[in-house]
C-alpha cells in the first residue's frame, strides 16, 4: 500500500477518478492532493484533494476537502488517516467538506474519521446564465468605466489586485496574489476604474466542467455599492453573449453579504442537498 | 442706511479681510500645488468676490437710485449666482479631500451642472422680468417660487456635503485626519441667518469663518505634507507614535529604500487606497496601512521592486506587521 501526492506531473494517471474541477486546481500553492495505491503500478484506490485556507494569515488555518474518491470503505479510511499528518504539517485547526449527497463511501468514511456529518443545503447556489440575464437589475447598460479585465495590462491588473487585497478582499481565492489574469474569463470578468486605477473586480473562472464560478466580487471606491451593481450588469450581459443560456453559474454563499445578495436576487431558489461535515483538528 | 445694511457691510468687510489675510498668511495656499489646495484657494477667492458684490449691491441702494439701478441689479444678480458656485465648490472640496478621486467627483456630481445652469438662467432672466424676485429697495419682500427653488438648491449642496462627511466617517469607522463636520456649521449658520432680514447678509461671513476654521484645523496636517509628492514628512511619525495601541486594528509598515533614482512616481502609482506614505529621509519611504495579509504585502513589494528594476532603481524593501497589543511607538521604532 503506498500513498502518493497528486501533482501536475502525475495528474493524467487519475483519469475519471479525479474530478475535473478539482484536478485543474492541482499545482496551485494552496491545493494538496493525496492518493492511495495498492502497488506501484496500480490505479488509485482512493484519492483526496483539499484546499488549505489562511495558511499565511493570522486567522486559523482551515482545510476544505474538495474532492474525495474511495473504491472501498477501507481505502477511504486509510487515506483519511494519512490525511491527518498532512493537515498537522500545515497547522490546520479545522477541516470541512461539502460533497454530493450520493458520493460513494463518503458518509461512512467521514463519520469514522471523526467528522460530524449531516445532509444540508449547499452553500452554492447554482443558477443559469439565462436566469441571471432575466433579472431586471442587470438589463441596463453598464457605464463606460466598467471594462473587461481583458482590456487591462498585466501591470494594471496586479495593481488592482494589490489594491483589493490591501482592503482585505480576496473572495474565494486564497492565492489571489499569484493567480494570473488568464485564470479568469477575460471577457466576462470585469473591473471598475477611477483615476486610472482599478477599484474593484468581478472575477469569474470557467471551471474544467464548463461552469462559471464567481470567485471575487469587490469594490473599494466611494460608491462601491453602485460599482458592484454596474459590474454585475456588465458580467451578466457579457456572459449572456458568450455562453448558452443554460450554462451553470455558481454563486458561493461564503459570507453574509453574498447570502443577502443572492437571497434578494433569487428569493425562491435554494442550494442542492449535499453531504457536509466539519472536524476540529488537534491543535 | 438702515441698521441691517450697516451690519451687512461690516460683515462683508470682515469676510473680505479674513480671506485676504488667509491668502496673505499662507504661502501654501497661495502656491496651491495640490488639487485640494486649488479648490480651497478658489473657495477663498469666490468668497471674497461674493463679499465685494454683496456689499456693493447693498450700498448702491442708497446712492442715486435711478443712476445706479442697473449696476445694483447686476451686482445683486452676480451676488446671487456666486453662492451657488461657492456651495458647490465646498461640496467638491469636502468630497475630494476625503476620497482623493477626480473621477468620483465627475460621476457623482454630473447632475450639479444642470442645477447650476438652471439657477444662472433663472437669475439672468430675473434681471429683465422679476420672476424670481422683484427688484425693489426692499429686496426680499417680493420673492417668488423660482427664488425658493434656487435657495433649496443651495441648501441641497450644503447638506450633501454634510452627508458626504458622515458617509466617510461611517465607512472609515471614524478614522482619518479630516473632521470637516464642525466647520460646516458656520457655513450653515451663514446661509440660514441670511434670511432673517432682507437687508441682512451673513453668507460671506459664515463661509469665511468656516473656511478659516477649516484652514486652521488642516494647517497642522498641511505642514506635514510635502507639496510636490503629496507624501507626509517624517515629522508625522512623532504624532503617530502617540496613537494608542488599543485603538488600532494592527498596522502594517513597508520600508522602501532606494539607493538612487526617483522612487516617488512609482510609489504614487502603487500606493493602495487608504494607506499613507512618509518620506523618512532621501530615498527612504515608509508605507503605513491597517493590518494586511502577508500575501498582499508581498505582492505590493514584488510589484514595486519590478517597476523599480525597470526604471534602473536599486531598491530594498522590508516590512513589519504590528503585533497585538504592541504600542505604536515600538512598532514604528522598527523603521527608524
Could you provide a short overview of the structure?
Chain A has 283 residues and is α+β, with helices and mostly antiparallel strands. Chain A has helices at residues 20-23, 73-90, 106-112, 129-133, 154-165, 224-242, 256-265, and strands at 2-5, 31-37, 44-53, 62-70, 94-100, 116-121, 124-128, 146-148, 190-194, 197-206, 212-219, 248-252, 273-280.
Q: Which strand order does the major sheet of chain A show?
A: 1-2-3-4-5-13-6
Beta-strand segment tally of chain A: 13
Number of domains of chain B: 2
Give the biggest sheet of chain B. 5 strands, mixed
Secondary-structure class of chain B:
alpha+beta
Q: Mind telling me the C-alpha Rg of chain A?
A: 20 Å
Shape of chain B: elongated
Query: Helix content range of the residues of chain B, please?
Result: 55-70%
Descriptive report:
The complex is a heterodimer of chains A (283) and B (336). Chain A is an alpha+beta fold and 283 residues long. In chain A, 27% of the residues lie in helices and 31% in strands. Chain A has 7 helices and 13 strands. Chain A has helices at residues 20-23, 73-90, 106-112, 129-133, 154-165, 224-242, 256-265; strands spanning 2-5, 31-37, 44-53, 62-70, 94-100, 116-121, 124-128, 146-148, 190-194, 197-206, 212-219, 248-252, 273-280. In chain A, strands 1-2-3-4-5-13-6 form a 7-stranded mixed sheet, with helices on one face. A 6-stranded mixed sheet of chain A has the order 7-12-11-10-9-8. In chain A, a hairpin with an 8-residue loop joins strand 3 and strand 4. In chain A, helix 2 crosses helix 3. The longest helix of chain A has 19 residues, at 224-242. Chain A is globular and about 60 Å long. Chain A starts with a strand and ends with a strand. The mean pLDDT of chain A is 93. Chain B is built from 13 helices and 5 strands. Chain B has a 5-stranded mixed sheet with strand order 1-3-4-2-5, covered by helices on one side. In chain B, strand 3 (276-281) and strand 4 (284-290) form a beta hairpin. Chain B folds into 2 domains: 3-223, Rhopdopsin 7-helix transmembrane proteins, CATH 1.20.1070; 232-333, 2-Layer Sandwich (Alpha-Beta Plaits), CATH 3.30.70.270. The longest helix of chain B is centred in the first third of the chain and has 35 residues, at 65-99. The mean pLDDT of chain B is 83. Chain B is α+β, with helices and mostly antiparallel strands and 336 residues long. Chain B has helices spanning 3-25, 27-31, 35-60, 65-99, 102-108, 110-129, 145-171, 181-193, 203-223, 236-241, 264-270, 294-310, 328-333; strands spanning 232-233, 251-258, 276-281, 284-290, 315-321. The interface between A and B is medium-sized, with 29 and 29 residues.
Amino acid at each position: 500500500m503506498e500513498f502518493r501526492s497528486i501533482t501536475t506531473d502525475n495528474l493524467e494517471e487519475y483519469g475519471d477518478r479525479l474530478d475535473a474541477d478539482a484536478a485543474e486546481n492541482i499545482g496551485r500553492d494552496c491545493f494538496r492532493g493525496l492518493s492511495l495505491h495498492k502497488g506501484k503500478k496500480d490505479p488509485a484506490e482512493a484519492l483526496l484533494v483539499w484546499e488549505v485556507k489562511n495558511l499565511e494569515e493570522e486567522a486559523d488555518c482551515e482545510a476544505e476537502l474538495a474532492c474525495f474518491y474511495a473504491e472501498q470503505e477501507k481505502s477511504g479510511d486509510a487515506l483519511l488517516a494519512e490525511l491527518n499528518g498532512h493537515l498537522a504539517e500545515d497547522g490546520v485547526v479545522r477541516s470541512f467538506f461539502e460533497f454530493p449527497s450520493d458520493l460513494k463511501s463518503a458518509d461512512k468514511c467521514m463519520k469514522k474519521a471523526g467528522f460530524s456529518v449531516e445532509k444540508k443545503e449547499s452553500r452554492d447556489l447554482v443558477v443559469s446564465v439565462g436566469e441571471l440575464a432575466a433579472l431586471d437589475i442587470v438589463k441596463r447598460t453598464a457605464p463606460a468605466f466598467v471594462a473587461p479585465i481583458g482590456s487591462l495590462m498585466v501591470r494594471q491588473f496586479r495593481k488592482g489586485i494589490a489594491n483589493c487585497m490591501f482592503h482585505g478582499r480576496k473572495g474565494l481565492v486564497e492565492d489571489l496574489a499569484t493567480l494570473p489574469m488568464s485564470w479568469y474569463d477575460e471577457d466576462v470578468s470585469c473591473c471598475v476604474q477611477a483615476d486610472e486605477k482599478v477599484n474593484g473586480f468581478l472575477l469569474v473562472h470557467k471551471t474544467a466542467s464548463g461552469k462559471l464560478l464567481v470567485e471575487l466580487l469587490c469594490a473599494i471606491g466611494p460608491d462601491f455599492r453602485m460599482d458592484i451593481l454596474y459590474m454585475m450588469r456588465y458580467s451578466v450581459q457579457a456572459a449572456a453573449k458568450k455562453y448558452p443560456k443554460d450554462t451553470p453559474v455558481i454563486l458561493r454563499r461564503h459570507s453574509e453579504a453574498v447570502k443577502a445578495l443572492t437571497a434578494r436576487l433569487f428569493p425562491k431558489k435554494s442550494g442542492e442537498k449535499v453531504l457536509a461535515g466539519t472536524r476540529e483538528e488537534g491543535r | 442706511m438702515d441698521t441691517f445694511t450697516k451690519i451687512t457691510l461690516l460683515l462683508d468687510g470682515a469676510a473680505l479681510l479674513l480671506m485676504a489675510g488667509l491668502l496673505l498668511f499662507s504661502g501654501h495656499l497661495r502656491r496651491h500645488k495640490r488639487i485640494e489646495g486649488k479648490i480651497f484657494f478658489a473657495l477663498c477667492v469666490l468668497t471674497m468676490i461674493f463679499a465685494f458684490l454683496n456689499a456693493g449691491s447693498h450700498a448702491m441702494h442708497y446712492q442715486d437710485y435711478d443712476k445706479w439701478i442697473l449696476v445694483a441689479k447686476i451686482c445683486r444678480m452676480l451676488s446671487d449666482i456666486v453662492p451657488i458656485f461657492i456651495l458647490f465648490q465646498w461640496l467638491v472640496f469636502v468630497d475630494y479631500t476625503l476620497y482623493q478621486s477626480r473621477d468620483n467627483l465627475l460621476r457623482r456630481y454630473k447632475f450639479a451642472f444642470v442645477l447650476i445652469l438652471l439657477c444662472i438662467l433663472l437669475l439672468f432672466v430675473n434681471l429683465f422680468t422679476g420672476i424670481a424676485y422683484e427688484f425693489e429697495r426692499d429686496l426680499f419682500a417680493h420673492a417668488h417660487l423660482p427664488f425658493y427653488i434656487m435657495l433649496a438648491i443651495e441648501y441641497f449642496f450644503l447638506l450633501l456635503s454634510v452627508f458626504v462627511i458622515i458617509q466617510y466617517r461611517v465607512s472609515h469607522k471614524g478614522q482619518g485626519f479630516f473632521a470637516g463636520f464642525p466647520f460646516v456649521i458656520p457655513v450653515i449658520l451663514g446661509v440660514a441667518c441670511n434670511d432673517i432680514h432682507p437687508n441682512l447678509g451673513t453668507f460671506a461671513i459664515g463661509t469665511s469663518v468656516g473656511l478659516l476654521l477649516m484652514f486652521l484645523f488642516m494647517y497642522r496636517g498641511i505642514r506635514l505634507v510635502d507639496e510636490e509628492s503629496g507624501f507626509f514628512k517624517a515629522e508625522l511619525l512623532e504624532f503617530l507614535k502617540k496613537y494608542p495601541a488599543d485603538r488600532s486594528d494592527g498596522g502594517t509598515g513597508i520600508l522602501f529604500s532606494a539607493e538612487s533614482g526617483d522612487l516617488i512616481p512609482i510609489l504614487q502609482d502603487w500606493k493602495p487606497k487608504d494607506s499613507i506614505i512618509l518620506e523618512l529621509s532621501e530615498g527612504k519611504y515608509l508605507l503605513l496601512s491597517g493590518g494586511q495579509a502577508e500575501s498582499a504585502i508581498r505582492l505590493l513589494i514584488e510589484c514595486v521592486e519590478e517597476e523599480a528594476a525597470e526604471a534602473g532603481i536599486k531598491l530594498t524593501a522590508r516590512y513589519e506587521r504590528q503585533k497585538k497589543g504592541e504600542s505604536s511607538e515600538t512598532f514604528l521604532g522598527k523603521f527608524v
